[in-house]
Design brief:
271 residues, globular, metal-binding, four-stranded antiparallel beta sheet, 25% strand, Nucleoside Triphosphate Pyrophosphohydrolase, NUDIX_hydrolase-like_dom_sf, alpha+beta, 30% helix, NUDIX hydrolase, 12 strands
């Protein structure tokens, strides 16, 4: 069966020589990661929290991204150590099409990375002092020392993107959506970012179109879908039942340019 593909905007494509050079190097290892879309209701509709990655970063330098990062060994032990409830992990495994251990790791990683990069703790516990966040970043303490147990209800499934094999740096990224708990405010105080703030998805997309903001295809696609959401409550309610299907962009060479295309479910499906 042939799956129709949707071409992304030409800006995401590349010149043919650059594409040909990708084939001269071995594909990068696929690393599992999470990204958390923090949302709130603003005066003009739903707003998302975006970080601007530092120019010197090895991956996604200068890009506007949602908070997130790769799994570490402590995340992978989340189920075994009781950081994620077994029943919750099994339900999440059904959502993501993976094992309970792997699903628990995604949940733990999402909470940890969000706290490290924004100061927002997605948990039903009082927000700890700033020194606890710094100790977690330095791996002097673990996430279980901070939250006890992950409150998975705060993390709703949204999307899953895989980097194509030709790329030197590859990620299998689970995107979650979450509302900021009452009394907390993200700050973006991370060494990986040089700026951070709230904006509507539509504004972020306009700034990208005007050349004032850099986005990667997954971020652009997520923002495109979010721009149609009426409010945070409706968004989160709908996300609870999503079953994200993997999205792996494809390259479509045509003359001197190579377009990037994705399956239609990249812009909303997952049920």
């Amino acid at each position: 069966m042939t799956t129709d593909l949707v071409d992304l905007p030409p800006r995401f494509g590349m010149d043919r020589p650059a594409f040909d050079r990708l084939g001269d190097r071995p594909p990068g290892d696929l690393r599992v990661a999470t990204s958390v879309i923090l949302v709130r209701d603003g005066a003009e509709g739903i707003e998302v929290f975006l970080l601007q990655r530092a120019a010197g970063m090895a991956f996604a330098a200068g890009m506007s991204v949602f908070p997130g990062g790769g799994l570490d060994d402590a995340d992978r032990a989340a189920l075994a150590e009781g950081l994620v409830d077994g029943g919750v992990a099994q339900a999440a495994a059904t959502t993501w099409g993976t094992s309970a251990e792997a699903a628990a790791a995604l949940l733990a990683c999402g909470v940890r990375e969000t706290y490290e990069e924004t100061g927002v703790l997605l948990a039903d516990v009082p927000r700890p002092p700033e020194r606890t966040r710094k100790r977690l970043v330095a791996r002097e303490v673990g996430l279980r020392d901070v939250v006890g147990r992950v409150d998975a209800e705060r993390l709703r499934p949204w999307a899953r993107w895989l980097t194509p094999e030709l790329m030197p740096r590859r990620y299998d990224t689970a995107f979650f959506v979450a509302a900021v708990p009452d009394g907390q405010e993200p700050d973006g105080a991370t060494s990986e970012a040089v700026g951070a703030g709230w904006c509507t998805p539509a504004r972020a997309l306009r700034e990208w179109e005007d050349g004032h903001r850099a986005l990667m295809p997954p971020t652009w696609a997520v923002l495109t879908e979010l721009s149609a959401a009426p409010d945070t409550a409706t968004l989160l309610a709908g996300a609870a039942d999503r079953r994200p299907q993997p999205v792996t962009p494809s390259f479509r060479p045509s003359g001197e340019r190579v377009a990037i295309a994705v399956p239609p479910h990249a812009f909303g499906s997952g049920r």
